Amino acid sequence: LGAAVKDLPLVTAGSGLAIGLPANWGFEPSSAAAQLPPAGGRQAVVAGSVSAATNGQVREFLSTGRPAFSVDPLRIAGGEDVAAQALAFADKHLADGPVLVYSTESPDAVRSVQGQLGAAEAGELVEQTLARVAQGLIRRGVRQLVVAGGETSGAVVQALGLTGLRIGGQIDPGVPWCAAPLPGGDTLHITLKSGNFGGPDFFTAAFAVLTGESE
Predict the structure, then answer these.
(1) I need a labelling partner for 26 at 20 to 30 A (CA). Which of 63, 108, 145, 180 fits?
(2) For the stretch 83-122, what's the b/e string if a residue is b when 16 or more beta carbons lie within 10 angstroms of its beta carbon?
(3) Quick one: which of 170, 174, 168, 167 has its CA closest to 197?
(4) Cα–Cα distance between 172 and 181 in angstroms, integer?
């Protein structure tokens, strides 16, 4: 398929087709293409997905005793500055390792909130709050960021003004680490995970993969 689409001006597809494209211009696949700059800075996870997999990943993270802050849509709707509260919590813990800020809930809890606020409004409130949290985390020196949830990922990428990503190696099937330049010259290592991707220990395993501690 890679050879067949050589003359097309625009191609959209998955990574399988992408692997077949470089040969059209005389390039060979290379493992060096997935090498990212060395990672540094603080570590954080922002999770907005309500999928079963992300619920499990949040539970696994909590079971390790690591610091986590739960975002309550009803408190946001009530006028509280939940993003500021989450960042104040992060200030106390970022120096000691990854911090999780999450809005992930059980299906029953999600339905209850949606019943009170409406599904669209509840989703918008959470996404914009988590996007503000991501901005604040970057200002606090986070340079390794895991984002869970498709809509959350879109909101975070827009809020951070990311216009391009260099794709690195996989953490789990279908989920790679990426690198993006930040204003001022720093590099942000970020992974954008759809809700149902990744194993139960994805949040902690992701940082181990990036820093080489899993080898």
Answers:
(1) 180
(2) bebbbebbeebbeeebbbbbbbbeeeebeebeeebeeeeb
(3) 174
(4) 23
How far apart CA 99 and CA 137 sit, in angstroms, is: 10
Tokens of 34: 């997935």
Q: Count other Cβ atoms within 10 Å, centred on residue 207.
A: 22
Express each pLDDT in 37-70 by its tens digit: 999 999 999 998 888 899 999 999 999 999 999 9
Using DSSP, state whether 166 is helix, strand or coil: strand
Strands 142-148, 68-70: pairing is unpaired
Give which of 84, 181, 186, 101 is closest to 147, Cα–Cα: 101
- In order of their start, the domains of the chain are 1-33 (no CATH), 35-211 (3.40.980.20)
Binned average pLDDT, 10 residues per bin, the chain of 215 residues: 94 86 86 86 93 91 95 85 96 96 69 62 83 97 96 94 91 92 90 90 93 62
Place of tokens 């399988």: 16
HSE, CB side, 13 Å, CA atoms: give it for residue 71. 35
Query: What does the DSSP 8-state code read for residue 21?
Result: S
Residue 50 sits at the vertex; the CA angle it makes with 103 and 125, to the nearest 5 degrees, is 45
b/e 31-52 (16+ beta carbons within 10 angstroms → b): eeeeebeebebbbbbbbbbbbe
pTM (two decimals): 0.85
For residues 58 and 213, give the distance between their C-alpha atoms in angstroms, rounded to a whole number.
21
